[in-house]
Amino acid sequence: MRHATGRARRAGAVLAAVLTWAGLLAGAAGCTSGGKAFDRVFGDPPAPEDVVKVFPDDGSKGVRPGEKLRVRAADGHLESVTVVRSQDAQNTPVPGHFSHDRRTWQPDDDRLALAAKYTVDVVADDEAGNRSARHTTFTTLVPDKRFIGYVTPENRSVVGTGMIVSLSFNRPVTHRAAVERAVRVTAEPPVEIRPHWFGGSRLDLRPREFWKPGTRVTVELRLRDVEGAPGVYGLQSKTFSFTIGRSQVSLVDVAAHTMQVRRDGRLLDTLPITAGTPKRATYNGTMVVMEMHEVTRMDSRTVGFGSEYDVPDVPHALRLTTSGTYLHGNYWSPRNTFGRENISHGCVGLRDVKGGGTGTPAAWFFDRSLVGDIVRIVNSQDGTVAPDNGLGGWNMDWGRWKAGSAGK
Q1: Collapsed DSSP state (helix, strand, coil) of residue 303
Q2: Which residue ranges form the domains of the chain, and what is each CATH number?
Q3: Nearest-CA neighbor of 149 among 206, 201, 227, 226?
Q4: Is 31 considered catalytic here?
Q5: In the sheet that 291-299 helps form, which strands lie side by side, from edge to edge?
Q6: Would residue 316 show up in a list of annotated catalytic residues for this protein?
Q7: The pLDDT of residue 34 is above 80
Q8: Quick one: where's region Disordered (predicted)?
Q9: Which tens digit of pLDDT belongs to each residue from 43-53?
Q10: Percent share of the chain, pLDDT over 90
Q11: Residues with Cβ < 8 Å from 87, sequence gap 6 or more?
Q12: Distances from the Cα of 287 to the Cαs of 333, 378, 379, in angstroms?
């Protein structure tokens, strides 16, 4: 009797188990799609793409700069996120941060680099404690058009106290505020430095007054992937510096035919000069030495004066304006011209010898000069040099200079 009862109980237990599993399977089939509940019944983990959401989507191509990189846990939390940017044959980790609940992750810099491949590796835990790993990639837009800025002065140079940081862009910039924000100029000791746009292709930056000798200036260009105009993106990302040397200011008095050269406020010498004739008068105003050449060619046709002159070997030439004003050696005029008569086509001339000697006023001045030195010209019959003609921004008062910024 006991034996028969035991068998009946075991048969009932088996029947109950069968009915229970049948009910579970029926519920799984009738209340879910894709068999996910069925998987959970048998302990299969969910697919990684159901646990971890990555934007942009895996395999995306030509992702535009405005899109954002985001990683999200559908449920549970993110354990780790590793993002690597591959660009210009270099792999760079992308730093980022989690939300307080670790359900989302985003990069610290929300801008996506252009012409780059991003690799995203994520480990997450769902609410049931199952770990999932996901690997995705996407590539960003490769721009058809790029712009760069040609910068003055040169990296690691020592320059005069009148130097202005000047960027000339190879394409017109219409998104000036964005480009301006990507250019940072700082000084040690600190001084206020402000930008000014001359049209859409040139950005200059300077302090209110001339630099103090010994100042170290750092220029940061973060133009890469900045949209300077519709569909035109920057290419540069670089930092360079230069140092301000001693102060040298030369005062050219056209009427008196003299140039006083002062070093750190002390008069070094007064040199006899010749300047422009009344018909080809020299500009007045504050100019900055832009270039220095031991010897250069000067052809009147390049500055709109027809065929009036073509001197292939002008010695000790210091360029003062883009339009062609130089302070240079002159070996072709009689010695008694200097200090007495203005005969040039607008340049300032110092006595010299053919080939550029060592014992002439022109050689003496050239050997004591730096790019960035200041030359002030007064008492000429011409007007004041334009602020964008060379590094002529010192001829603009501080209020007007600041008004030329796009970041208002």
Answers
A1: helix
A2: 48-139 (2.60.40.3780), 145-245 (2.60.40.3710), 248-395 (2.40.440.10)
A3: 201
A4: no
A5: 291-299, 310-319, 326-330, 348-351
A6: no
A7: no
A8: 86-105
A9: 577 889 999 99
A10: 82
A11: 113, 115, 116, 117
A12: 25, 11, 15
